[in-house]
Amino acid sequence: MMEKKYTLNPAFLLVALLFLLTGCEDVITLKLDEPGDQYVIEAQITDQLKGAQVALSKVKNFNADNHFNGQSGALVSIEDESGTPYILPETSTKGIYRNDLLKGIPSKAYKLKVQIVGKTFTATSIMPQKVVAQNAFAFELSLFDGPRLFTHVTYLDPVDRENYYRFFEYVNGVYTKTITVTDDEFTNGKLVKQMLWPNEFTEETKLKKGDEIKVEFLNIDKNIFKYWKSVKDGALGSSGNASPVNPVSNISGGAIGYFSAHTIQSIEYTVK
């Protein structure tokens, strides 16, 4: 039997180096400006039912609590290529708008429109063709804090187009808050083994035998890849900016956030 050869995404090597170099830091107190009257939009449509949802909120002061600042009274719709708008009614949760019967089709473009208090925000996203994850499993590596188990996801990247991916990891039903995004710049047409990094390198984030792992594998478009990469770079302090900046948004009209049309696949395994 021929042994399979995997291409380990080189991006994880850079992230490992960053963790090694950030062991000792000075504490810096920043004087941050108060936010303006700015809306935040987190919107998506997927290739699954119950995947069309918009969360509409407002920017909060830096020292305010982190509860969702939902905004009611908006007219929210997603339009397909035929020009037909589908309304997303507000749910019982303030600021959450959803259409459980609306699902997208890969390779099609979708347009978001949000209207509230005389303001209109729009965004367009193209749902990529679906790349199927083949497997997910735990693989041990030795790093600066000793041996650790990391979730790896394997998939065959298509050679005929650019591809962009995002991964969500849940451990025993709890989202790990990782931001794992990648493209196929160095893996085009190859069988890829993508490693998922924990949000923090602590004892609590170590995978253990018996842990139930769920991975959501998303095919995203280029603009959404840029958005999440800018979020990740900002979190790691690797954006090249001396002060925090807003992520690269695909929304027009003055709001921050994103609108993502993406495919999604769930894959589960138990750490052995």
Describe this structure in words.
This protein folds into 2 domains: 7-19 and 130-239 and 265-270, Immunoglobulin-like; 39-126, Immunoglobulin-like, CATH 2.60.40. 10% of the residues lie in helices and 41% in strands. It contains 2 helices and 17 strands. The protein has helices spanning 11-21, 222-236, and strands at residues 7-8, 39-46, 52-58, 75-79, 85-87, 96-99, 109-116, 119-126, 133-143, 146-156, 164-171, 174-175, 180-183, 191-195, 212-220, 251-252, 256-270. The strands form 3 sheets. Strands 2, 3, 6, 11, 12, 13, 15 and 17 form an 8-stranded mixed sheet that branches. The longest helix has 15 residues, at 222-236. Mean pLDDT is 86; it is low at 10-34.
What CATH calls the topology of the largest domain is Immunoglobulin-like
Order of helices and strands: EHEEEEEEEEEEEEEEHEE
Number of strands: 17
Helix content: under 10%
Rounded mean pLDDT is: 86
**How large a portion of the residues is in β-strands, by DSSP E?**
35-45%
What is Rg? 20 Å
The low-pLDDT segments are 10-34
Distance between the termini: 25 Å
Q: Could you say what the CATH architecture of the largest domain is?
A: Sandwich
Helix-and-strand structural type: mainly beta
Q: Largest sheet, if any?
A: 8 strands, mixed
CATH class of the largest domain: Mainly Beta
Question: What is the number of helices?
Answer: 2
Any idea how many domains?
2
Question: What is the approximate shape?
Answer: globular
